Amino acid sequence: MQKVTSKDGTAIAFKKSGNGPVVILICGALASHKDHGKLAELLSDHFTVFSYDRRGRGGSEDTKPYAVAREIDDIEALIDHAGGSAFLYGISSGACLALEAAATLGDKVTKLAIYEAPYDEGVGEKERWKAYADTLQEYVASSRNGDAVEYHLKFVGIPDVALVALKASPQWAEMKSLAHTLLYDVAIVGDDRSVPAGRIGKIKVPILVMDGEKSLEKMPFMRTSAEKIGSAIPQSKRRTVEGQDHQVDEKVMAPILTDFFSGGR
């Protein structure tokens, strides 16, 4: 992997593939550049694709104290390395980060696509989110990484049978190594998990705001949040992706992004 140095001196690792306009892929919780491997491959016929490890993950360094602004600096460093402007695609908490970056970096972000930013303003969710954040903090502070990851997965609704299989897989060790970054994602989504309508309303570039059709049953807040994000940003377009849940198929997402970033609205 190649590396770029962020404003605070942190080395950020990335992979670059393809040719054309630059697209930066921003992963969500407990993920790294590897989770966008297939999507990067599919997009590389049309774009120069940067898939990177967010700070504290994989090949990237980490610098304390953590701040969302530093993750935005990381994206800016990638954009500057790529030539000064880029499209962004973010999924889950990576979608929240992409929104914050676009609101901060101005015309360095020329288009933005997001999938299921996990804001939730439902009744009792502010309190539930605080309890989640406090429990994660306790687990991470006491180096109970496995407990932190398991708690997170149960919070987001993973079935017990899937959790058992995951804990028995080689992937579990890597997920435990990323447990501390769950607190970074909490910070990105925000203290009360509400849509930051005021901040993101500053975004002036075209944005595609997506949710999955199948998410409506188990995570209806994804639809509600997508609608509120779309309403907050003047240049937005909304799309519900048919047949998809939160784990969107990258073979389905690739042509959607290709069309949008190539000029489609």
TrEMBL record:
Keywords: Hydrolase. It comes from the Bacteria. The keyword Magnesium does not apply. Signal peptide: none annotated. Residues 23-243 form the AB hydrolase-1 domain. The keyword Lipoprotein does not apply. Pfam families: Abhydrolase_6 (PF12697). One of its GO terms (molecular function) is hydrolase activity. This is Alpha/beta hydrolase. It comes from Pseudochryseolinea flava.
